[in-house]
Specification:
Beta Polymerase, domain 2; 7-stranded mixed beta sheet; Hypothetical protein af1432; 7% strand; 11 strands; 22 helices
Length: 477
């Protein structure tokens, strides 16, 4: 077995001092499968204090005895290596953490506490393989199987149920019958797991090339209802003449396109959730049913989903934004440059490419054979053409300070209203984005009351919304 030279050095040091030491866990599994490990873990009979003595350049701050050795190697995979004493664990009263941790004397004891057989294999420096639970045979059979009693393993840590799905998805394995049955019968225990841990496993599932299979498996074993129950509302919901799949199938197929293209997690998540609002907005049945405002409804739902799963604000905001504007309308010769500028203003230039990727996935997920038709290529041309124009308040030739100076007025809500009024005008005619012209316009806008300025913006927004609704009716979207 090929063990990284830096890892071999650590094993050699431990063995040279009379200790037993093994590489364990996912790195062994990956090497046996001719995959590149993403990290290396070592188990040893040396206690934490002894490990620290042997490797002074270390970090140690946990309840499990793990010492992180800093190799400072250029290869990020072995820049740090975790070395943990053999251990056994007590009961998991909270279904998340062991109540007690005791150091053990043999590698077999240590392997007995691990989650799945494919992760319960150890290899020593001389190549001796310790595999008491048949992990190698399960790798050959391409099977995920719990170590020992699967019910007991999932009672210890309910997140292991999601991990089983994640390993099956990422490795393209199946889950053995007893383990699968234990997941299905204990799925409700996932409610005891923190949102952050569930989120992290979900990210790993969606970030695999087989993301569709992962989400489908979460549904099949009964876990999805405790992760994204809103997504399940699309099960069996038929669509109109523009779709050949149910809402559920369409969402998953759209995400599959993003996974096939190796797009970012944000794009994959937006693809998965882009039509999550359709079941709640559906009117009528058959090929002429409608889903008016499903993008706005879906964006609100997406925001709540992302917040519930404790995603950072920036990623939550981006995914909800992509969902909100995925129904943008564009037709060559019909949509004006100002409409394109408004789209960029709403989405942000930094998100436009991802919005187009979502639209591509939406097309393929609908059964359309071509992801990028001529009109999408033309839109990309238009975006490039107008992207130098002002599409946000920050890109105006004047700012809030200029307004306060020109009007000799202190900061206040009216400054923002004037800036937005200027932007609305510039979006329609970018040639107005000249400092002198805007300063002249500022003085005229100052004569209006805040309510008048607000009403002006409301009229613009209302007209845009009405225009969008008419197009949605025309195209049954």
């Amino acid at each position: 077995m090929e063990i990284h030279p830096k890892v071999r050095e650590i094993l050699k040091t431990l063995e040279g001092e009379g200790h037993k030491a093994f590489v364990v866990g996912g790195c062994v599994r990956d090497v046996l499968m001719d995959r590149h490990p993403t990290d290396w873990d070592i188990a040893t009979d040396a206690l934490p204090e002894r490990i620290q003595e042997l490797f002074p350049d270390n970090f140690y701050d946990n309840a499990f005895g793990t010492v992180t050795i800093k190799t400072r190697d250029e290869d990020p995979i072995v820049r740090t290596v975790q070395v943990t004493p053999f251990r056994i664990e007590g009961r998991y009263s909270d279904k998340r953490h062991p109540d007690t941790v005791q150091f053990a004397t043999t590698i077999e004891e240590d392997l007995s506490r691990r989650d799945f057989t494919v992760n319960a294999i150890a290899v020593s420096l001389d190549g001796t393989v310790v595999d008491p639970h048949g992990g190698q045979a399960d790798i050959e059979r391409r099977t995920i199987r719990a170590v020992g009693d699967p019910v007991a393993r999932f009672a210890e840590d309910a997140l292991r149920m999601m991990r089983a799905v994640r390993f099956a998805t990422s490795l393209d394995f199946s889950i053995d019958d007893a383990t699968l049955k234990a997941i299905t019968s204990n799925a409700t225990s996932l409610k005891d797991i923190s949102a952050e841990r569930v989120r992290d496993e979900l990210i790993k599932i969606i970030d695999t090339p087989r993301a569709l299979d992962g989400i489908q498996l979460l549904e099949d074993v009964g876990l999805l209802q405790f992760i994204i129950p809103e997504l399940r509302e699309g099960l069996g919901v038929e669509q109109n003449l523009h779709h050949i799949y149910t809402v559920w199938e369409h969402n998953l197929r759209t995400m599959k396109y993003a996974a096939d293209k190796s797009y970012s997690f944000a794009v994959r998540m937006a693809c998965l959730l882009h039509d999550v609002g359709k079941p709640r907005s559906k009117h009528g049945e058959g090929k002429h049913c409608t889903f008016y405002a499903h993008d706005a409804i879906g964006a609100t739902m997406t925001k709540k989903i992302m917040e519930r799963l404790k995603f950072p604000h920036d990623i939550s905001h981006k995914v909800a934004l992509l969902v909100r504007y995925h129904m943008f309308y564009y037709s060559v010769g019909e949509v004006t440059e100002s409409s394109v500028r408004r789209l960029i203003a709403n989405v942000g230039l930094e998100n436009i490419d991802d919005l187009l990727r979502l639209r591509e996935g939406d097309r393929i997920g609908s059964g359309t054979p071509k992801a990028v038709p001529y009109k999408l290529r033309h839109l990309k041309y238009m975006i490039d053409k107008v992207s130098h124009d002002a599409i946000s308040v920050k890109m105006l030739a004047v700012n809030g300070a200029d307004i306060m100076e020109a009007l000799a007025t202190p900061p206040g809500p009216k400054i923002g209203l004037i800036l937005n009024s200027l932007l609305a005008e510039v979006l329609d005619d970018p040639s107005l984005n000249e400092r002198d012209l805007l300063l002249e316009r500022i003085r005229k806008l100052d004569k209006k009351t805040p309510d008048e300025l607000q009403k002006s913006l409301e009229r613009i927004n209302k007209a845009l919304e009405q225009e969008e609704q008419e197009r949605m009716k025309k195209y049954y979207v």
